[in-house]
């Protein structure tokens, strides 16, 4: 799905004394075939930018064009249009684990399917499939979401957005609160879903995840795009200037460089091993 930001500005509380300018002159076309990472320090505007994509927020000026729908300040959003768009987009909110509300896991996961496809009586089956994909077995179906661990709640929230099979997943910190193993399982699941043709926009603070999974990245700082392009290129430079952490693999390469071992073309552990072997 094509997503374009044109001269986009966004203020919270625009017409009051509490006005804050959060996005400034954003111009960008997101590549529809990619896993696109949006990164930047806390408060840089990442969540705000993605909330503009499916019309939770309206631009203060400029445009957001999502799948041909133009959103600008003067746009009167029609329910039908917004609903048509939103069912193509699975939006996983930041802190989604705190937003479960039904009394059983299966009901919570079914909510989106029932909401967007009221005539589909296969919602329970779809919800079960989604739960199994995120690694929660049948014993979870009838449990209360409130009795689950943080990581389990996160998985339920993820199941809820993949269950209705959207064309685009917007994932705001999907791995926050998961342990290392859980993070890998969930990211591998998103990768698999992406390989079936689903577009992904991913907000994360984890540069290891960006390097391993994303095809393109956008670095936001104080509401502006500071840099964009290939994670492999951007992350190997000095990224501390954007308040980002250098991925482990590049830290290792830099440490080796200080010892006089210069390695090229290394982006992951297997390529590191191959290059090190060449050095004997
Ligand atoms: N509802 C709101 N009203 C006023 N200001 C807000 C509101 N929501 C966010 N902001 C402000 O807008 C700025 C950008 O917030 P946003 O949530 O988009 O940042 P973020 O990059 O997602 O940060 P984080 O990494 O902490 O999630 C912040 O300065 C924040 O305080
Ligand atoms: Mg955020």
Descriptive overview:
- The protein has 280 residues and is α/β, with parallel strands linked by helices.
- The protein has two domains: 3-237, P-loop containing nucleotide triphosphate hydrolases (Rossmann fold); 247-280, no CATH class.
- It starts with a strand and ends with a helix.
- The longest helix is centred in the C-terminal third of the chain and has 16 residues, at 180-195.
- The protein contains ten helices and ten strands.
- Helix 3 (105-116) runs parallel beside helix 5 (150-162).
- 36% of the residues lie in helices and 22% in strands.
- The strands form two sheets. Strands 6-7-8-3-9-10 form a six-stranded mixed β-sheet, sandwiched between helices. The chain has a four-stranded antiparallel β-sheet with strand order 2-1-4-5, with helices on one face.
- The protein binds adenosine-5'-triphosphate (ATP) and magnesium ion.
- Magnesium ion is lined by residues 46-47, 94, 172.
Q: Which band does the percent of strand residues land in?
A: 15-25%
Write the H/E string, N to C.
EEEHEEHEHHHEHEHEEHHH
Give the C-alpha Rg: 20 Å
Average pLDDT taken over every residue: 94
Largest sheet: 6 strands, mixed
How many separate domains make up the residues?
2
């Amino acid at each position: 799905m094509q997503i374009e930001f044109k001269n986009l500005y966004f203020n919270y509380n625009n017409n009051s004394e509490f006005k804050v300018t959060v996005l400034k002159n954003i111009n960008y076309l997101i590549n529809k075939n990619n896993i696109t990472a949006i990164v930047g320090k806390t408060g840089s505007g990442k969540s705000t930018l993605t909330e503009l994509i499916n019309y939770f927020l309206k631009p203060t000026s400029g445009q957001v064009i999502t799948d041909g729908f133009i959103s600008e300040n003067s746009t009167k959003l029609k329910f039908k249009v917004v609903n048509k768009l939103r069912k193509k987009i699975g939006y996983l909110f930041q802190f989604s684990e705190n937003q479960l509300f039904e009394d059983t896991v299966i009901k919570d996961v079914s909510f989106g399917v029932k909401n967007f496809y009221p005539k589909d009586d296969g919602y329970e089956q779809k919800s079960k499939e989604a739960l199994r994909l995120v690694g929660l077995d049948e014993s979870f179906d009838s449990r209360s979401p409130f009795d689950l661990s943080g990581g389990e709640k996160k998985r339920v929230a993820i199941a809820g957005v993949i269950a209705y099979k959207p064309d685009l997943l917007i994932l705001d910190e999907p791995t926050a609160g998961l342990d290392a193993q859980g993070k890998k399982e969930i990211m591998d699941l998103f990768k698999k879903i992406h390989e079936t043709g689903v577009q992904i926009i991913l907000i994360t603070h984890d540069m290891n995840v960006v390097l391993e999974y994303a095809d393109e990245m956008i670095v936001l700082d104080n509401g502006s795009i500071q840099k964009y392009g290939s994670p492999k290129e951007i992350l190997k430079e000095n990224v501390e200037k954007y308040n980002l952490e250098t991925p482990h693999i590049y830290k290792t390469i830099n440490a080796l460089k200080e010892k006089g071992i210069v390695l090229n073309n290394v982006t992951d552990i297997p390529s590191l091993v191959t290059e090190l072997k060449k050095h004997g």
